[in-house]
Design goal:
It is built from 17 helices and 18 strands. It is of the alpha+beta class. Strand 9 and strand 10 form a beta hairpin.
Length: about 475
Amino acid sequence: ACLFASDKLGAESVYARKLEIIENNLYGVDKDVFAVNIARLRLWLSLSVDGDKPQPLPNLKYKLEQGDSLITPVMVSQLSLRAGSVQEFQRLKSEYLTAHGKEKKAGLEKKIEDIKEQIATFTPGVYKAGDFDWMVDFAEIIADGGFDIQVANPPYVRMELFKEIKSTLKKNFPEAHSDRSDLYCYFYARSLQLLKPEGMLAFISSNKWFKAGYGAKLREYIAKACQIHSITDFGDLRIFKEASVSTAIFIGQRIAKSNSNVIFTQVKSLNLQNLNVKDVITQDGSVLPHNAIIGENWLLTDNITAKRINQMESASIPLSKYVNGEIYYGVKTGFNQAFSIDENIRVKLISENPASEEIIKPLLEGKDVDKWNIKYKDRYLLYMYYGIDIKKLDAVISYLKPYRQQLEKRATNQEWYELQQPQMKYSTAFDKPKIIYPDICQTSRFAFDDKGAFTRDTTFVIPKNDMYLLGVLNSTHV
């Protein structure tokens, strides 16, 4: 109602205006039926507070849909040739919104479902009644060229948990696909498909795609197809108490142009009770250098740090060259709970089967690495590499069996008891003295390991014979 306060509209007029907005401007999709019902309820509550007398509530079945946003293909221009069918579809949906009476609603639903099947005959997907399809369910928007605004908080789902649809996502979003992409990345690509030229997208999602290797194609695609207006990075600060996801707010516009005047804000502290994102951006945001976003290479930092990094790059030797390319990822288990064990389990496995000791390695995690210092703990890794002979490892296999169902759902095609990425090509490098840094951290945290630990959630380098490199690594150069 506050949107109309300046016009001094009466309560009934506010109700009518809200109903008009719902009819002509709002559309929503979610795979979770509970989320859809909550969204419908919130719209009904918003309408019910206006007016001196009870007002009829709209039918929101065809406004907020339950379904998968990513599975079906989208070609925005294709529906324009069948405008007559789409116009009738839109008229029926509008009539259904305010229809009352069981028989009238049932009759309109039948007509709507029939015309949806007609529309489906000239769309690229394989439409099935009951499944969500952008080009069918929201045909009136697609035929009009797409949406003006897309707002989303896409789900954060690791790639191990949706490998059965990876081939479909690759086909639908080739410009953003990576074998290791998490699910939220595809929502950015879908949003750009659905937007009109100059349409806006506003996302709150994980920030990992800004730097991760799997985000390279998406970064390049966004830089080419989108004018970025602002990026607000909350780093490791917890926006959602129930989810430990590093979060960012991304505002962009579907305009193919070079990205300039991008406002970047690194949020350093958080007060959720008084959080006003606009005020945070105004206070702490700064315009990125003109060359901060070029293709897949994004340098998201303040001007002072960016200038320092450019100076270092022009006056120093790249780290990869300095260490002769000996920069390595830690092990990726695909399911840490199974392969990471403590001292008690280590002793038990070895006592049951002495051969187990050969594949039990000391383990460091990213959270164990502080600036200059490593917090060694009694934590170990079951180093179950590809092709391992399990005939002598009965105790280890018995220990892993309760996790078999979860292990079989991982993204790659290893045996269920094998690590997802054991990094076998350089497994001997783990035993060498090395400099380690966490893959995700707010400040530089580099430390020296001379105990031959295996690592995960980290990257490490094998230095030359001098320790000068450790001082170099502590800078912001990496």
